[in-house]
Amino acid sequence: MELVTVWCVLVLGAFVSLSEAHVDFYTSIGQMTDLLYTEKDLVTSLKDYIKAEESKLEQIKQWAEKMDSLTDTATKDPEGFLGHPVNAFKLMKRLNTEWGELESLVLKDMSDGFISNLTIQRQHFPNDEDQTGAAKALIRLQDTYDLDTNTISTGNLPGVKHKTTMTVEDCFELGKVAYTDADYYHTELWMAQALNQMDQGEQSATDKVNILDYLSYSIYQQGELDKALELTRRLLKLDPEHQRANGNLKYFEYMLAKQMKAEQQSEEGSEKKEMKVTESKRKKGTPEDYLPERLKYEKLCRGAGTVSPRRQKKLFCRYYDNNRHPRYILGPVKQEDEWDRPRVVRFHNIISDKEIEVVKELAKPRLKRATISNPITGVLETAHYRISKSAWIAAYESPVVDRINQRIEDLTGLDVKTAEELQVANYGVGGQYEPHFDFGRKDEPDAFKELGTGNRIATWLIYMSDVAAGGATVFTEVGASVWPMKGSAVFWYNLFPSGEGDYLTRHAACPVLVGNKWVSNKWIHERGQEFRRPCGLDESN
After folding, report:
1. Which residue has the higher pLDDT, 14 or 248?
2. How large is the C-alpha radius of gyration of the chain?
3. Where are the alpha helices (DSSP H) in 27-84?
4. SS3 for 537?
5. What band does 112 get if pLDDT is binned at 50, 70 and 90?
6. Alpha carbons 150 and 192: distance in angstroms, whole number
């Protein structure tokens, strides 16, 4: 058992880096990578256990074969066999000692080492909240990027390196998560996908009766009585004694007959039915937290936004030295206009790969679920519309961070002494931040009161990774989409020179469809900018 003891020590060491157990793993891909190594360790431990069991069984097998041959010979001529004194002695020895040793071997539990490892590691496993969060992320991606269930189930996503498929059980699980939230639209989609895969011959431990039960009820909840009745009849063919289905069958038949009778008696029955169907289609799949701008937001996330030729003529690329700044006269940076109003500019190759890795390594141990400020209470809290983890890094912690801050000041011309610390964020499964403003509005007078540095005058956003699909920064009021490009940074003013908020800067971080998105941002505040960005003579400025 020495091997097991050593293995336990190794496993314990592997978890020194995981300081807290299951803290919203699904909200950060960067931290989820640790789970892959955890699972690899578990597999190694399991293989060691299998080898130990195989070794034990091999010893038992050899003993059985040896005794089988011996007893066959002995029982053919018992007296003659025992007439040999050595045989008589060995019989006594076997029954008194060796069979007892075999019993001990058979009773020996070879799983102790594996179970110990599993117990140690289980405290660092994701929990139900993580599993549900990841499931809801898939549903969110499905809606945002207008994907059908078969595309997701077969793994045919854009930019994937490691294609994987979903089983009937996986689809069934997504359907159940939606059902728990009374989201009958997505329950229908995923239960139908599970049923379709079973109908196509996929073997599964999931009972088709259960799938049909969920599917028929979710369809009934959306007002499609005839379809719900059809599926209930199919269920009863598989299980004629299903109590709930038998009750539903009678109820659906009664309601359908009542509906048809009402339509026949009404002169405007056909017109009302058409209006009802239209209304049903309009509402189908609309989430409870529906945003008025969601359609525009999702369209921009899919890259469906367009730039008019007139606007395109206003957008340029240039070498930029910020009015002949000493650090950039000989080596100006590449600057590109992403949008004209609000003015959003991108600085290319503004941070090196080495600097990015330093920032990420500083941030990883401190990543925590990103929070938002409650506009009513002012309390920081997590939100379903912001799926990421973040960490704050001060300039004194690393020369690299200090250099980044200086670079921001040199290129923007703004004082970063009153700015917030560099915030590093890593997005999780379907990670996003729905439409929001960076600045405090008039109905949030105390938004940054505790900082004492005024409102957020500007935002500097660094992309520290490329993203295979999704993950754009979109400005929903103007229809602009800015796509992640590793090593670049985008900059915009949140406030007019007058100090009034620019409501055209309302923006969002689209869900990451495929890939791992790392960003860092610097929120620059008003204090210290009085002479760097003074108010204009026109009040509208």
Report:
1. 248
2. 33
3. 29-76, 78-82
4. coil
5. confident
6. 10
Handedness of CA 308, 310, 312, 314 (dihedral sign): negative
Q: Which two tokens stand for residue 453?
A: 């540095």
Residue among 212, 178, 180, 182 at smallest CA distance from 195: 212
DSSP 339-372: EETTEEEEEET-S-HHHHHHHHHHHGGG-EE--E
Distance between CA atoms of 353 and 490, rounded to whole angstroms? Answer: 17
Residue 289: predicted pLDDT: 54
Q: What is the pLDDT of residues 421-448, one digit of tens each?
A: 999 999 988 889 999 999 999 888 778 8
Contact present, 175 and 190 (Cβ < 8 Å):
yes
Q: Cα–Cα distance between 520 and 518 in angstroms, integer? A: 7
Rounded to 5 degrees, φ, ψ at 415 are -80, 120
The single residue listed with the structure tokens 């007058």 is 498
Tokens 């599917």, residue? 215
Element spanning 481, H or E = strand 480-482
Q: How many residues does the chain have?
A: 541
CA distances from 390 to 314, 498, 518 (A): 35, 31, 10
User: Sign of the CA dihedral 21, 23, 26, 30?
Assistant: negative
Count the neighbouring beta carbons within 10 Å of the beta carbon of residue 183.
20
Tokens for 130, please give them. 């993580």
pLDDT of the residue at 288: 53
What are φ and ψ of residue 336, in 5° steps? -130, 135
The pLDDT of residue 290: 58
- pTM of the entire predicted model: 0.83
Q: For 338, phi and psi rounded to 5 degrees?
A: -95, -30
CA distances from 219 to 110, 139, 148, 193, 214 (A): 50, 18, 18, 14, 9
How far apart CA 297 and CA 291 sit, in angstroms, is 9
Distance CA 178, CA 72 (A): 64
Asked if residue 7 has pLDDT above 80, the reply is no
Q: pLDDT at residue 19 above 90? A: no
Q: Which amino acid is at 382?
A: T
Q: Which two tokens stand for residue 540?
A: 């509208």
pLDDT tens-place string over residues 139-189? 999 999 999 999 999 999 988 888 899 999 999 999 999 999 999 999 999
Distance in angstroms (rounded) separating the CA atoms of residues 96 and 88: 12
3-state class (DSSP) for residue 104 = helix
CA–CA distance, 495 with 491 (Å, rounded to integer): 13
Q: Rounded distance, CA 133 to CA 518, Å?
A: 20
Q: Is residue 210 predicted with pLDDT exceeding 50?
A: yes
Give the chain's mean pLDDT.
88
Helices (H) and strands (E) in the chain, counts: 18, 17
What whole-number distance in Å separates Cα of residue 201 and Cα of residue 199? Answer: 5
Any idea what DSSP says for residue 97? Answer: I
